[in-house]
């Protein structure tokens, strides 16, 4: 009789994470690694590369809470008033509008302060991976045609979920404006096909 199990190994320089559906397999591998390399077992995963891992019966939460709090402590912003968003999300900046600053140091400092206040407001957010989640893969995408008023490049983004867990995401400005023309043409062809004309 053979038993099946899943074993995942993540290695970064001299840090190793072992995850398996079979605890005995983890013990055997740790024993072999210790006899070969003199490893130190730190127990259940709690911190890895600036990530904090918390688990309970409902799932696993991965955050950068400790890193964010350390950053706020270092910069003196631990007691600052939190912000929901570091900037007005409807603002579209354009090179042709406004006047250029001769010394932008103060402006950059103000931006840094806003970002730190934003971090203060969301330091506990993270990715949650529920234990009872389906294996249904679903994705969502969005596109902002010609989002940049200077280059007329579009901004695209997507996120992928495995069950209720966010597993992949990306936001990207297109590389060239040629894609916009092709995209517009494709949209025109699609509209033409749907409308039957």
What count of helical segments does DSSP give? 4
Order of helices and strands: EEHEEEHHEEEEH
- Count of separate structural domains: 3
- Which percent range describes the beta-strand content? 25-35%
Global structural class = alpha+beta
Number of strands: 9
- Compute the average pLDDT: 83
- Computed over alpha carbons, the radius of gyration is 24 Å
Major sheet summary line: 4 strands, antiparallel
| Net shape | extended
Q: Strand order within the widest sheet?
A: 3-4-5-6
Low-confidence stretches: 193-197
- State the helicity in percent bands: 25-40%
Cα separation of the termini? 64 Å
Describe the structure.
- With 197 residues, the chain is α+β, with helices and mostly antiparallel strands.
- The protein folds into three domains: 1-43, no CATH class; 50-132, no CATH class; 133-197, no CATH class.
- 31% of the residues lie in helices and 28% in strands.
- It is built from four helices and nine strands, in the order E-E-H-E-E-E-H-H-E-E-E-E-H.
- The strands form three sheets. The protein has a four-stranded antiparallel sheet with strand order 3-4-5-6, with helices on one face. A three-stranded antiparallel sheet has the order 7-8-9, with no helix packed on it.
- A hairpin with a 2-residue loop joins strand 3 and strand 4 (51-56).
- It starts with 6 loop residues before the first strand and ends with a helix.
- The model is unreliable at 193-197 (pLDDT under 50).
